[in-house]
Sequence to fold (192 residues):
Amino acid sequence: YMIEHHSHEGDDDDAIEGELQDFCNDGKNVVISKSNLESDLVGSVVSANKAIRRCGFVYLDSLYESDVVANWTKSFREFMKRENGGGDWRYPCQGIGRSEVMLPFEEPFNETSIYGNIHLRSILAHAFKGTFKMELQTVITSSPGSGNQRWHQGWRYLFDQNERRQKYSYAIIVGVVLEDLTEEMGPTEFCA
Fold:
């Protein structure tokens, strides 16, 4: 069943939304393992874009090697010490106890392995039907005990706000977790 091919005229919107919610809550539809990415790139790209279109997100499990992420985390901490907690690199962030800083265009943050990852580039090229650019890289830090954030869009308008469901996005947010997350830290929820 493909909701994007349904005519919404005369359809029961609650049934359509329920079907969509079932699809998006089923991990097999929105989580793509590293082994699937490596063994079936084309199938993984199609699945990832289906999840992006239908659910607004996809989870690429272990996209980056743990030692690479550990190096980014170490470099970020060094950058924060050097720049007195972010200094002029601070970026507006909502929520008490949270900070966001833009990353400088320096090693390791400018390495091709971040945005040049073949799996990620393939998914993005398919989503955008060709070319795309990276707008910015930031790190959001939430201190223990941080307050909840309100529901918000991650970046301006990912879709044209005048369209109910637009076929293609014109912006996508890619998030990489630098620390292991626990349930006690609180969830990140996505909605489309």
